[in-house]
Model the fold of this input.
Amino acid sequence: MIANDKPRGSRWSGRRARAARMLAAGRSITQVASVLDLSPATARRYGDAFAAGGAQALIAMGDVGRRPRLTSEDLARIVQSVRQPPMKVGLTEKYWTSELVQRFIARDFQICYSYSHINRLIRDHGLQHWIRHGVR
Done:
């Protein structure tokens, strides 16, 4: 069905490729939504795109949602900062925590992200190893 398991496209195209494989195998919209942790509306939208144009149409769907507020340069600076002790960027704490990353972004970029968004940013940029968990 899909020749390459590493589809090109948006960062969501991997999930969409899985949805395409599941739909091609006859899985229901409800099953796709449950397995991929999608809303039923999103799974239906994926199903409609798949029915209209196959896997390529599904993978090629544009990103949805709010545009990023941080530039790629901002993100690079955050990643670089978190990979060194917090004191190197003017913070007094010894260790990075999710809350400290949240405060750093608010201080340096004037953007207040939710706790869940901060955790997603940490995960998506491979920063888990620099974050102390359970420290508040």
Q: What stands out?
A: Residues 13-59 form one domain. Confidence is low (pLDDT under 50) at residues 1-9.
